[in-house]
Structures are given as C-alpha cells and as structure tokens.
Amino acid sequence: PDHPGHGPLAFTPIDPVGAEVDLLTVPNGYQWTPILRWGDPLFANSPAFDPSRPNARAQQLQFGYNNDYLDILVDPRGRTGLLCCNHEYTNRNIMFPPTATAEQEAEVLKALMAAHGFSVVELERRATKQPWRYVRGGRRNRRFTANTPFRLTGPAAGSKLVTTAADPSGRTALGTFGNCSGGTTPWGTILSGEENFNGYFVADPAARGSKRYGLTNTPSVYGWEQVDPRFDATKPGYANEPHRFGYIVEIDPYDPSSTPRKHTAMGRFKHEGANIRVDNDGTVAAYMGDDERFDYLYKFVAKRKHRPGKSAEARRHNLQLLTEGDLYVARFSGTQRPDGANLGRGVWLPLVLDGRSQVPGMSVEEVLVFTREAADAVKATPMDRCEDVQPHPKSGKVYVACTNNTQRGTAGKPGADAANPRPTSTQPAGSTNKDGHVIEITEHRNRAGATTFSWNILLLCGDPTDEKVRTYFAGWDGPVAPISCPDNLAFDSVGNLWVATDGAPSTIEKADGLFKVPLEGRQRGHVQQFLAVPIDAETCGPVVHDTDDSVFVAVQHPGEDGSWAEQRSYFPDFVPAGHRPGKGAWRGPRPTVVQVTRQRRSR
Ligand code: FEO
Ligand code: CA
Ligand code: CA
Ligand code: CA
C-alpha cells in the first residue's frame, strides 16, 4: 500500500542498509527532499555555490557545513517557521581542491572558518504536512561563524582565566565551533554544545588544563593558526584563548539583532549539548554530557524559576536563567541484575552551590573553566561517552545516550561498572563497549532539582544476532533492528524515543540511521528503523513532527573518507562518476538538512 499503518507517522520499518550504499533510505510510502544543502545562498547578496573557488565572504553568506543539532520551529499558523542548526566541523579533503599558493591556502582556511558555526533560516510551506522550502533573504536569516562575537555570561565571565590581549575584559569571545548537539529551550532559544574545541588550537602542553582537555603544541587539525594568531595559545597574549571555548552557547533565533552568549555557569568541557526540563514548580534543570571516553554526566539547576507565558517580561526573565545556578556531576552505583534490568542508584555531586565552589582548593572560576578537574576531584563516574542527554517531555525521565567506549576494559583503563556494563565477562578477551547503550534515569520523587536518582539500562545496543555481544532491549524479546552507537535523541508527540546513530559502519557494518523505540507498554524496547543515511554519513538532528507526518534529519559528513579527486558520495544531488554533470553542477557530497514526508498519492 502507498500509506502503510495507521495514525500519524505509522511506518513499515526499513531493513538495515549496507555501510557502502550512497542512498538515503526511507520507509515505503514516504519521500525525502533536501531543505538546505551546504553552500545554498541564504541572503539576497549571497554568491552562488562554487567550491572550485573557495571564498570566505561567499561562505559566510551561504549555508554552512556538517549540520549536527537541528530544530524546526514552526510559527503558530503552521505555514512559516525557522530552521536552526549548527555547523560542527569541516571535511576540507572533499570540500575544496588542493591549493598551489599560500594565498589560496589562506582563503581556504578562512572559508572553512566561515563554514563553521550556526544558521538560522526562515522556512515556508503551502500547507501543513507539505514539504518546507527555505526563504532566501528571510528577515530572520542569520549566520554565526568562527568570528561572530559571543558574550560570556556567568561567574567565570571577566575572570583572569578568560582574558586575552585582544579582549582584556574577558567578556567577548569570537566565534563558536565544534558545535555538536544541542537543545531548544521552552523560552524559544537554541542551546548548542561546543564539543571538540581542542582540535582548533595549538597550546602549551604544560599549561593548566591542556592535558585534561586534549590541547597539544602540534599543528592544529584545522590549521587556523596560520591565518589568525589567537588559535596559537603559545603566542603572547593568547594563553587563555582556549578557555573561551567548550561552553554551552545560547542563540535567540527570533531576534536577529541579539548577541549570542556562552554560559560559563554550565561549566566547560567537551559539551555535547544541553536539554532543559522545567518542573511543575518552575525549577529549571539542564542535562549535559561530556563526550569523551571516561568523562562525565552533568546537571545544571538554575537559581531562578522559569516564568511561564509569552509576555516580553517573561521572556526577558527566562533569557537570564542559564547565567546563574548550581552545577552537579553524576556518580552511579548499583549492582547488575541477571535479568539485565540493572536497577541502580545515583547521586548528583555538587561542584558549585549558591555561587560557591564545593571543590576544595578550587575557586568558582576554576571549577567553571576547568570543570573536568573539579569532577575528577569529587570522583564522578567515568562514562562511555555521553552524547544527547534528554528529559522526556511527559514522564520527566532522563535518557542518556552513551555512544560507545572503545577503551572500556582495555589494559590500564577502567573495566565495566554498573552504569557502563560492557564488556561483560562472557565477551571475548579484548572486547569493549563498541556498540554503546542508553540509560534511563528517574530523579528522586521525579523532581528536576533532586540530588539523588535511580536508573536502569534501557538499551544495550548492538546486533542481537551476534552471539559475542550481549544486547538488551528493555526486556523486549521480539525481533529488533540492529542498532549501534546511539548519539542524538528525540521524542515524538506520543512519547516514543527516537535514536539517531553515528558509527554503525565500523561496528555492525551497517549504515547509520534513525530508530524509533517505544518506552511504554508491551512494545517497550522494540527498536524499529525509520531511515538510513548515505555512505560515511552520520544521522543528526533528528526532529520528529509526527502530527505533521514529518521527520527531519541532518545528514552529516556524507562521503567524508573520499577526496576532491575521488569522491565517495554524491548525496543529495547524485551526479555519479562517469556521468557528465550540467554546467556548474557539483560532483561531490553536500551535508544537507532533509525532510521526510508522506508520499503524495499519484493517480
Ligand atoms: Fe560530535 Fe559527541 O558527537
Ligand atoms: Ca554527537
Ligand atoms: Ca536531541
Ligand atoms: Ca557524532
């Protein structure tokens, strides 16, 4: 049938797709269309996309590269909206041709800086359930890049740990990059996590924090120090430049003149993202992961309560919520039960309370700039790479995607513990947690501000037909889609969890994809695959507007293992090798935000 199943977004699951397939696969009865591709012009004066001639000014006026966090904010009447997404990093090898001169090289580096950051773009459509189109020149369209001024807020703003020669006030940091996942706040702003910021800097390995944050004095991955001295922190006046990255940033997409901010009160680490829960008494908690092997899970609780309503005054108040509050890190305990339900307890260990450091020997500013050191000191639980950490909009339970840990249980590294239960003793020697897992947390009395919690394992991911790996699907014992490396989480309107993956090609040898997981009732744990992304890509976003029969994903880094001369992907425009493209057609992949909608009936 053209329209399988019943109800909004009913679908017949797709079969797993091979890792080398250069296609986006969606269920029968659905279609996919690109909304925005790398290089699409956003403004009236944007030059046309032409990667054969890298140009920083052009890129700054075009859609950026490698989208990770995504949200689609629909305006009240349903026909217009805003697409908000970040541009995490770049794949220079496939984006631009090799350079011959120093001038060309400098222009490429500046173009790559402009391809990072964040985009806000207006959308329009003819009717609900119809595909969206972006609006070139939309009034609220905006690009943020590696050079956009951001205001630092919170206790570490203005401290001597964040001042530089160019910014002696320590209050204005230029740019955002490495922005991985994020979250949309109930007051209509976007939070985005500055994750792998260390790769952008050269730094003194003996400087405080360098080792713990992975900063080294070798040439940076991105090479920006060749065109902007602030990326070389060994240069006089720039020692603190790396201290101005690794924060949660907050962007107001509804106010094109607003200054974006970095919230020091939420700590500095490799922030994956942040997701907000507002309790019914107005308490505001933000859940946050540090995505590094053996790093930690955090919670921020705002000092002030959320003010409901749509008034300008309420919004002004809520825009200040993340500038002040308490910061906690998680310690898990519990014993593993033979049935795999693995019920345990946990405590939120305070790092900052009422504006005061709770870590002996560290000031508040030090705790917020060297947060990993503070969490080490209180003996938080080293986790298997926390990615999205997302409270359920109805139940308040918190879902933690631990994407994998290829060092868990290896020589000299921690072995399995209750909350990171693989490798198990029955797995072959040398096993790790290659497939990742998802933890389900219930706060004490279900309060957002609780300082203790209980938890259980929801999913131990993997291919259930692989007898060498113990998998678990919340007790569901029917067939499931193989799933590996959970990364981004979302919920639909009826409360199902949706999981996007990043890494399945190298573990279960399948394309990454998007999966639906019911959390309640008899179907709890029944993992079903909705889509699969093209070769080398990870699935990001995702956004599930089930009542609109629409799903949105950011297809990140398609074909990233190719080169300018030998591309591996032609997504989304598919001009295959050997085919003569039309004049100006691009022969390579473009990271793209895609929407999946119901196929319209023909005949
Ligand atoms: Fe950018 Fe944690 O993935
Ligand atoms: Ca991620
Ligand atoms: Ca998410
Ligand atoms: Ca990822």
UniProtKB/TrEMBL annotation:
InterPro entries assigned: PhoX, TAT_signal
Chain spans, region Disordered: 406-435, 580-603
Compositionally biased region (Polar residues): 422-433
Coiled-coil intervals: none
Entry-linked SUPFAM superfamilies: Calcium-dependent phosphotriesterase
Pfam families: PhoX
Protein name stated in the entry: Alkaline phosphatase
